[in-house]
Amino acid sequence: MPSVTEIRSKAGSEPVTMLTAYDAPTARLVEEAGMDIILVGDSMGNAALGYESTLPVTVDEVASHTGAVARAAEEALVVADMPFLSFGVETAESVHNCGRMLKEAGADAVKLESGPHTVDLTERLVQLGIPVMAHLGLTPQRVNELGGYTRQGTTEEDAAEILDLARAHEDAGAFSLVLEHVPANLAAHITDELDIPTIGIGAGPDCDGQVLVFHDAVGLSENPPPFATAFGNAREELQHALDGYVGAVESGTFPAEEHSHVEEDLDELY
Ligand code: KIV
């Protein structure tokens, strides 16, 4: 498994690969593809749990799904994404919630959607031995305050604020930084400025690594964001398999002889 130190040392040298997973079989597939990091994203809210946004996702849900992923993942670094309001309100409660991900669920690190309110918390968590991945730019937990899943860092002032926060989180001890939906030239500049790896999503090609949501990457999402690409058509493949199953049951071709067993002794009874 790459340690957070190894991930940190990839900055500027080797690309960091990260994808989300929310369950054990998916984690195994993601790992077989050679992913460096599996993020148990709070995107599970939309992608897997049927919520309209990530806001309703609970600490228990993230802990449960992180446990499933961590039990399956032998090679990749497992990062638990802390849900809305589970951190940043009270320090003790934040530490308790983040600590659960390592102690109970088996995560290697946590990710915090970051802002001015997470600089001191990041330092505290790192002091306590909880590695932190920071996340700036579009932070979907603030969707109501932002007015939508909009591009961030598009004005000089906003870009400067993101850069300042990126530096502050690096200084606080974060081992990496996700940059979401920011201009490619801003992400390139931040990547140059920091020693820790930047991991982009909708942030152009010059970050140290890239992350996508599993369902977007494999072609399962109905409404993927504009910056995602599907590298397959899993929806079509799954639909094909499911149509085949329904058709076979309805036509009586499944189960066939090879799927059934007959006990000779029972012939006398029935
Ligand atoms: O929740 C998530 O999956 C994320 C990634 C998109 C970075 O935060």
TrEMBL record:
Its EC number is 2.1.2.11. The active site is at E180 (proton acceptor). The keyword Lyase does not apply. It catalyses: (6R)-5,10-methylene-5,6,7,8-tetrahydrofolate + 3-methyl-2-oxobutanoate + H2O = 2-dehydropantoate + (6S)-5,6,7,8-tetrahydrofolate. Binds 1 Mg(2+) ion per subunit. Pathway: Cofactor biosynthesis; (R)-pantothenate biosynthesis; (R)-pantoate from 3-methyl-2-oxobutanoate: step 1/2; Cofactor biosynthesis; coenzyme A biosynthesis. Mg(2+) binds at D42, D81, E113. GO terms for cellular component: cytoplasm. Its cofactor is Mg(2+). Its main location: cytoplasm. It holds the Pfam family Pantoate_transf. 3-methyl-2-oxobutanoate binds at D42, S43, D81, K111. Keywords: Coenzyme A biosynthesis, Cytoplasm, Magnesium, Metal-binding, Transferase. It is found in: Cytoplasm. Gene3D superfamilies: Phosphoenolpyruvate-binding domains. Belongs to the PanB family. Catalyzes the reversible reaction in which hydroxymethyl group from 5,10-methylenetetrahydrofolate is transferred onto alpha-ketoisovalerate to form ketopantoate. NCBIfam families: panB, PRK00311.1. This is 3-methyl-2-oxobutanoate hydroxymethyltransferase. It comes from Halocatena pleomorpha.
